[in-house]
Write a structure and sequence with these properties.
alpha+beta; binds (3R)-3-hydroxy-3-methyl-5-(phosphonooxy)pentanoic acid; GHMP_kinase_N_dom; single chain; mevalonate kinase activity; globular; steroid biosynthesis; Ribsml_uS5_D2-typ_fold_subgr; seven-stranded mixed sheet; Ribosomal_Su5_D2-typ_SF; about 20% strand
Length: about 375
């Protein structure tokens, strides 16, 4: 068991194209943000395990001895692929949480308990430790805050239990895990996401684990080769929403109107592929035509996402305001509020800067 303090951080993400469609096996393109979540793990010998989440006002502690007595056989033994909705219900019961709790505070604690009890069951006794997690990412805004939280927890707990080595070498300020270790972190982080979101595609935790710009499809992750530098304005509508509910609504719409909704998902897939192709071309020499194509793809996808039912009046307003400045925007993440992205053309930067003075206000 680790004896020194461990500091871990993981980034949030922006989905360029493919949100919702990715849940149904289609391609998504996503990039890591330079807004991060941080975790500090302090090992103890006081017989307690504590979780502090100052951003959402959570401060909980448990006696390790009482957690040790819980019947957690349903969690399986390191089989991180086995988590189901039934397991989450059982976990709520074990944690003494109401069956119908869906608020971010309860779900964050549940994800912690799940990862702590599952990862640490490899130890002879559950470890005594204090974990504090804080973030630059707004919660429930489509920027992958829950994935960054799950990635930090998985990385810290796997390191504390020596399932993966501490990558920090003597005298170095920062370290990075090997690909193999990152795969294990990502696998467990996906389970944390499942506790919080029910049926996530896995794109958020993949980007948060590996960083950079990724193409994601059904668990297959590849880096975008030499992505061009794009200037993207991130705007937070500050309208809260639940990814879990929005994903479930799209599923219901697909079941109700398969002939109508399946082609929308196929079309979003084609938009992601076309965007990937254009980004590849732009790496060599970006032209105004490339920007024109990217703008058209953004507009078409935004209409598709509206047709899937994940739009919101605040996002419509965002699109109208940016259109008035000659810019193109779409929602990013689950929609229903949250954040939108606006592509800034290099030649229109001054106009875009003026756009920042209008409402809704940019998040960063
Ligand atoms: O809004 P976020 O950050 O939770 O992103 C959700 C992305 C979805 O495609 C809507 C869901 C998923 O699991 O991929």
């Amino acid at each position: 068991m680790l004896s020194e303090v461990l500091l871990v951080s993981a980034p949030g993400k922006v989905i360029l194209h493919g949100e919702h469609a990715v849940v149904h096996g289609k391609v998504a393109l996503a990039v890591a943000l330079n807004l991060r979540t941080f975790l500090r793990l302090q090992p103890h010998s006081n017989g307690r395990v504590g979780l502090n989440l100052p951003n959402i006002g959570v401060r909980r502690a448990w006696d390790v001895a009482s957690l040790q007595l819980l019947d957690t056989s349903f969690l399986g033994h390191g089989d991180s692929a086995a988590l189901t909705a039934k397991h989450v219900e059982k976990l709520k019961e074990v944690a003494g949480f109401p069956k119908d709790c869906v608020d971010p505070e309860h779900l964050a604690v549940l994800a912690f308990l799940y990862l702590y009890l599952s990862i640490c069951q490899s130890q002879r006794a559950l470890p005594s430790l204090d974990i504090t997690v804080w973030s630059e990412l707004p919660t429930g805004a489509g920027l992958g805050s829950s994935a960054a939280y799950s990635v930090c927890l998985a990385a810290a707990l796997l390191t504390a239990c020596e399932e993966i080595p501490n990558p920090l070498k003597d005298g170095e300020a920062a370290g990075r895990w090997t690909e193999e270790n990152l795969e294990l972190i990502n696998k467990w982080a996906f389970q944390g996401e499942r506790v919080i979101h029910g049926n996530p595609s896995g794109v958020d935790n993949a980007v948060s684990t590996w960083g950079g710009a990724l193409r994601y499809q059904q668990g297959k992750i590849s880096s975008l080769k030499r992505p061009p530098v794009l200037k993207i304005l991130l705007i937070n509508t500050k309208v809260p929403r639940s990814t879990k509910v929005l994903v479930a609504n799209v599923r219901s719409r697909l079941l109700k109107f398969p002939e109508i909704v399946a082609p929308l998902l196929t079309s979003i897939d084609a938009i992601s592929l076309e965007c990937e192709r254009v980004l590849g071309e732009m790496a060599a020499a970006p032209t105004p035509e490339h920007y024109l194509t990217l703008e058209e793809l953004i507009d078409m996808n935004q209409h598709h996402l509206n047709a899937l039912g994940v739009g919101h009046a605040s996002l419509d307003q965002l699109c109208q305001v940016t259109t008035a400045h000659g810019l193109h925007s779409k929602l990013t993440g689950a929609g229903g509020g949250g954040c939108g992205i606006t592509l800034l053309r290099p030649d229109r930067e001054t106009e875009a800067q003026r756009g920042r003075e209008t409402r809704p206000r940019p998040h960063s």
